[in-house]
Amino acid sequence: MYASLLLPALGGLALVGAQTALLTATESGVLPVLPTPFSGVETIEGAIVYDGPAIDGFTGPGGNASIQNNNPPATYQAVLPSTNFDNATGSLITGSITGAANANGTGVMFTVSFTGFPSEAAYGPFVYHIHTLPVPANGNCTATLGHLDPTDRGELHACEVAAPQTCQAGDLAGKHGNITTTTFSASYSDLYLSTNPSSPYFFGSKSIVIHSSNTTRLTCANFVMVANGTTGASNSTASATSTPSAYTGAAGHMSWSGSAAAFGTIAAMLVPFFL
CA torsion 272→29→184→160, rounded to 10°? Predict the structure, then answer.
């Protein structure tokens, strides 16, 4: 059952300029189904601050994500801008993420190359997701809204790594691992994302957002097409998303397992927890 539990927040991860709000009603993509009993969950910028524990086989109203077949041979890339959206860490995160349809048309192969992360002990682990909307011209990462989530799974329960079909489609860190180093590189195939613009799992018109572990949105960028295998067209590389204006926003996750080691001795936050 749910109970209220005071958890100490890590001093280095104080929620600078962010306002928490108690979400007690359903909200699509965030909390589509209310557990019972339930007295609310803390949110920042509309997103749940702390994940509850993973529940084996948990899915949203839409059930499991669908494996994406018959993807057109296109490639999309998001290049991070030259200024962080949130500069509080004092470290500039740069790099790119590229997604290309697999040769057999099933799923997407992602290549991730980021560098410049600040201290993992102070601000990590870092997470990254595909968000529903693109970054606007002013670079405001909060305008990207929540994670790509065609099945309306929501954010309350942590992604079950062993069952990626039950996770939010856009939760790349949840399915493929958090960032815990200054420089991060990874390559992996994701069966639940698409290069087909008519698919609800299409990521090519969306954005990538990188968060610190206390949910702050550090930087973001838009995916753009850089190669189209059908026509042979190629744009070589994407341009960096517009340099953002300084702003402290939030919308990521810190799981119970990830936050346990980060608990400090300062201010406490009221969050939900399963007994």
Answer: 60
How do 20-23 and 108-115 pair as beta strands?
Answer: unpaired
pTM assigned to the model: 0.78
What pLDDT shows up at residue 44?
Answer: 55
Residues 159-192: tens digit of each pLDDT: 999 999 999 999 999 999 999 999 999 999 999 9
Number of neighbouring beta carbons within 10 Å of residue 122: 14
- The b-or-e profile of 179-195 (16+ CB within 10 A means b, else e) is beeeebeeeeebbbbbb
Instruction: For residues 225 and 134, give the distance between their C-alpha atoms in angstroms, rounded to a whole number.
Output: 13
- What does the DSSP assignment read for the chain? -EEEEEEEPPGGG--TT--EEEE-S-BTTTBSS--SS---EEEETTEESB-B---TT--BTTBSPPP--S--SEEEEEE--SS-S--TTS---EEEEEEEE-TTSSSEEEEEEEE----HHHH-SBEEEEESSPPPTT--GGGG-SB--TT---SSBPP-TT-GGGS-TT-HHHHH--B-SSEEEEEEEETT-BS-TTSTTB-TTSEEEEE-TTSBEEEEEEEEEEEETTTTEE-SSPPPPPPPPP---B---B-HHHHHTT--SS-EEEEEEE-
pLDDT tens digits, 239-255? 777 666 544 333 333 33
Query: Residue 219 and residue 211: Cα distance in Å, rounded?
Result: 7
CA 154 from centre of chain? 12
